[in-house]
Structures
1.
Amino acid sequence: MIELDKDGDLWTVTLNRPDKANSLTPEMLARLCEIAEGAQQARALILTGTGKVFSAGADLDAARAGMATSPDWERLSAAIAALPGLTIAALNGTLAGGSNGMALACDLRIAVPGAKFFYPVMKLGYLPQPSDPGRLAALVGPARAKLILMAGQKITADEALAFGLVDRIVSPEDLLQTARDLAADTLAAKPEIAQGIKGMCRP
């Protein structure tokens, strides 16, 4: 249910559980962690999904069993944020719940027009993962972060673009090719130059 395609130095990770809105089981989350932690040699990494939802977050049954507070959510976002290569979330649809963390940890986010963004963690009685509010506020500002996390608002793709939560809206048929195009210059550059620029851009 987690697919990994390696095309030279470009890695593409696909969430493939469309019948369950790409919700993550503990095994899927652990596999994503393993891939992210092992991707030090990838010069670009794309995260995407199949179907019309990128990910609904934790599988409901697994969430009730304790997955909602699993440390692997933070482990995953930390591993993605630490990667030296360019990381791109190619959001094929709605992004919800704990899956926000992996997208927020990426360098770039592109989304299809129908995507919606929400993180109803407070409503469900949980705190967000520790790094998520800071990354969200760095992108959209503190007030808009509270709009999402505390006011429980679902953000449309157009709003997400205006807020700075996503960097580009792309038609579904062009989504993956656009992500590859965005990675092309990094893949063609000297690794130490690309990594140096990424380091210089860190807040």
2.
Amino acid sequence: MNDLTPQEPGYGSSARQGCPFHDVRQRLRRVGLRPTRQRVSLGWLLFAKGDRHVSAEMLFEEAMKARVPVSLATVYNTLHQFTQAGLLRELAIDGAKTFFDTDSSDHHHFVVDGEDKVIDIPASAVDVAELPPPPQGYEIARVDVVVRLRKIDG
């Protein structure tokens, strides 16, 4: 399993914060989701390790290792329910790859090309000076900046 929250100063936190099952249940209830056994189990796997970025496949693999009886479809559905409820942020990378971020606060991301690696960038580190006005009848919900990185051969 890849822990996609690197230990680089100023970019995310790798501290394991812990999240007991009753905390997951309360978190789900607060956002209007019924705390089913599968949601609580997947929520515990997601949030027990602090802020991080996971794909559905990574969470499914963690669930299998933890002997949580869920299908990949259930993992996808749960991640989308958590995202709609505001517990996660969805990051679509290259159209085919999607990560879910357990830190739902405003911030941006580095993505390492060719790797399943996403690194947080604090919102204050990115200056978006001017945005175009949205079309009539719309408002800007948020700005997501994705900065792509590649390893330097050397």
3.
Amino acid sequence: MVDELPDTGEVDPGEAAEDEFDESYDPDSDAPAADDDAAGPPGPVNWNLLTADAAEEEWLALNEWVHWLRHTYGLPVAVIPPFWHRHPELVWELSALHIHWLCAIHPEAKGSAMLVWHRDFTEAQERLRHWTASCGTRLTTDRPTRRIAWPGEPDTDPIEDIIIPNREEDFVEYMHADVEARRRAEDQFIAGLGLSTGEVP
């Protein structure tokens, strides 16, 4: 039986280094940091059900991450166009990649998680190329994604390109319009609850 070593009050260098190491900080990287306060890896984002406040948070986080992604990997406009935020198909794909990336860098992730992410990222780039080419968005111009009217549905409006001189201003305006639309829907829902119960909302 080995006697226990006396407590000298000295701190193990390995433990000290581990305690002092902040995984969220990397002076050589501008990558967005993961949320250390989260109890576990984030779940998927359902953009159809986000509240106004949650949508604003997701828009800002996704926009920051997409900038990091395109700069880090040198992605062309054919993969991630400037006006991706105007096209739901691109928003859903990029949002899924973002959550996938957050899960891959989470402390609870396996060591091979980033390899899996890069494999899926390679596949996602082909889908992004397809949707970017299909919707017709370009470096300085954009147009709504073409929607085909089925029999019995009203004809769709003509598709026209518009020139957008400032991408960041357009993003902020688009985000605010989306958030305000969600907020109006929330207010209408709450007002409807008040009418159904006879209470003043």
4.
Amino acid sequence: MSGDETIGAMVEGEDTSLLIVDDDKPFLTRLARAMETRGFLVETAESVEEAVAKARANPPAYAVVDMRLADGNGLDVVAAIREKRDDARTIILTGYGNIATAVTAVKLGAVDYLSKPADADDVFAALTRTAGERAAPPENPMSADRVRWEHIQRVYEMCDRNVSETARRLNMHRRTLQRILAKRAPR
């Protein structure tokens, strides 16, 4: 879709307020600019506290929320938006995709769950998708090695970056885990 078509896709008179919440300032700025060119009235926040305050003061019709923020969990923002506006279309963005949090996000009212890095076209498509419409499968799905690496990273983060505890939970030798953590993420 070109920029003209995407703006035309928005319904005239529709509430196009959009709250974008992410603690990655360059990504937040780029996405906000891209969504403005697609016809949204964008408001941004860099923390759970700031986002919840903005959501309660002026509940948006749309929201894009990062799962992990410096001061907490993006699901708290989704819940705050849902409290004030149950028709809001919310999307969760995360670098740590897993099924449990995707299910929780949907139960709290999120309409989609996108893995980072997601581009503006993916975000726009998810926000404007109709209820029965299904997302197309990804052209470049994660490899099995990448899925394994993501899982290890998620457990490592959950264990507050404690290698010994992570190795114990993953039933893995500590040195093996250290070698995996020292490598770059597989493609």
